[in-house]
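re the bet — no i am not wrong, look at it urself. input seq straight from the record:
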Amino acid sequence: MNPRPPEPSPPPEREPSSRRRNGSPHLLAALPPALSDAPVSGPARKNGFMNQPNAQAQVQHPQPSVGSIAAHRPHTVAANVSDLEPDLDADLDEYEDLVQDGVQLPQGRFLDRERSWLAFNERVLELAEDPNTPLLERAKFLAIFASNLDEFFMVRVAGLKRRIATGVATRSASGLQPREVLEMIWARSRELMARHAACYQEDVAPQLAEEGIHLVRWSELSEKEQARLFTLFRHQIFPVLTPLAVDPAHPFPYISGLSLNLAVVVRNPVSGHRHFARVKVPPLLSRFLEASPNRFVPIEDVIAAHLEELFPGMEVLEHHTFRLTRNEDLEVEEDDAENLLQALEKELMRRRFGPPVRLEVEESIDRYVLDLLVRELKISEAEVYPLPGPLDLTGLFGIGALDRPELKFPKFIAGTHRDLAEVESASPPDIFAALRERDVLLHHPYDSFSTSVQAFLEQAATDPDVLAIKQTLYRTSGDSPIVDALIDAAESGKQVLVLVEIKARFDEQANIKWARKLEESGCHVVYGLVGLKTHCKLSLVVRQEGDTLRRYSHVGTGNYHPKTARLYEDLGLLTADPQVGADLSDLFNRLSGYSRRETYRRLLVAPKSLRDGLIARINKEVQHHRAGRPAHVRIKVNSMVDEALIDSLYRASQAGVPVDVWVRGICAVRPGVTGLSENIRVRSVLGRFLEHSRVFGFGNGGEPEVWIGSADMMHRNLDRRIEALVRITDPAHRSALNRLFETGMSDTTSSWHLGPDGEWTRHATDAEGQPLRNVQEMLIDARRRRRGTATP
């Protein structure tokens, strides 16, 4: 086995507060006590507010036991949540407050971003723990939790440790010292990993067994199953194993990041000497091996049962499974790199040798072996995580992929957007003809990506009247029809410009490969601007139509990735609007040449105009509210961290403007604080699809303004990336997006609510215990009704 909605009703009206506090003492007093400079209580410390007098004191963590344990890699589609991954360069410098209108905002108004990220992953875990989630989907959420946490340690924790070691880390915007943040991460992640293991051991695995899917250990196999696996071991596993001894002639071997390993203790029967050896579990083999139909055993159990084959003549005394996580983020000094492509390739080789940041071991490990690992790997006791086996539950992606549809979410196949094809047919829609009639607002995965964005580019590649295609690629699939279309276009003589972001985290190697392939086909390939990642999602097609040239554009919130487009919730605008076409032409000229344009017609572009443009619109809502005109702020993003933008939301709330924030992952906003943010609500929706779109809506005095685009509200997006938002002008599209907001934020919709103390509370049932509406299922059902296939 190879692992790997009815029309929504608006929420009830809220009473906006028109009172405004004039002075920070009232605001500071309104904050929860644990946010002040007072000593941190025990419960607060448990929740992540660490404030120890001796920052260097060794933290003693209780080792989890089986009874107490509640237990993306990016290459697996379901785990590809790396766009939410914390930003390594997240600025730990204190945010400089600005006094505005004579009001100084209080200290402690920002939630800690690392704690908030861990809270996001806890929400993923809650989906795995929820008995109402289909069983194989629960297994998949367990895998996603594990994959997310791997990436968090590889990037965020590794980056924080590096800053502490080099002395450049400073107090975070939340007020915590770097060491306090690190200790909070250790404590909180330990709790979550314990719950994760317990969910698997005590809940999901037993329920899978009740459904005929058995995840067992070696001792639970029958003799026939063990014999079958011995044959498999001899022919397919043994030849690729390499036992590595540790003795004066053999130094301790390098342990690669995220590899699963066996620590083996053997004894020489002649001399009586004990020896240590390491056996790496081959990463390319299936994580769980099928011993007999629907009975699976971890691969390390099969290897451990046959260690005598690896150490003939020696006595195998004991073996223990362990797994190491290393710093795997990249550091490339672009200013010093003559060729960014070559510099990145070299750095990818160095990535494998990053310092360790976490050691997972089976809780039964012998203390002598554990001490040896800690000493040789140069890792602290605080970074050791004893857990019940099996380790590395990312392998549950393979279990979740089993063909048992009754244990999964009901299958949904997206149809062609109705504005592209009034009647579903086998023939592809004429995208250009449709766009000459109207703009098309796409909502994936409810609207098919393949018959919209992909068809748009494929039609452009084969259309003899198309003269040029310009495209950004941040992430795409290994067998990308997008790349194939661009290659076909170049080979047919069209001018094709492709901006490949080869620094897209964890996709660097794949993007280097595609960059070279595109170059070889005749595409003009560029890698963006020095010091900036290009994260915007843009396509531009230039077509000869009679005596004029017409430009067709696509601006999206998600990557040009056909596979994730079936799993990620994203928005996209297809348009023939001349202003958008002119904006994209100007922006592509900036990305490929030396243009210094900073203002656009229907775009807001980072790093120059996006943050300032959004803050200006938030401030304008205050003016509208004071004048008695309709005013609101609605923001849907993956992450909300930027302090300047958050402060503008606080000031809008103080003025009485209703502010709704729909966030999937990190959120540093502290909602519901009297005098500061009582007009701010924060919600989070997680489910079968990964909420990925970014939307920004403003009441604008009764003339609503809505933007969509690629940017999250993080430092990296607003200061160190090329991001683009496009203004939605069609009134019907604006209304649809506002209805989406109202549904997502409604108290009758299932979601998590953020409190002023930073705690997220799940609201999945009403007062009578009945399930609340699921926004994703409502959208699925709405599409099915259009096609006459809605669920009864």
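see?? The two ends are 36 Å apart (CA to CA). told u. also The CA atoms of residues 651 and 678 lie 11 Å apart. so pay up
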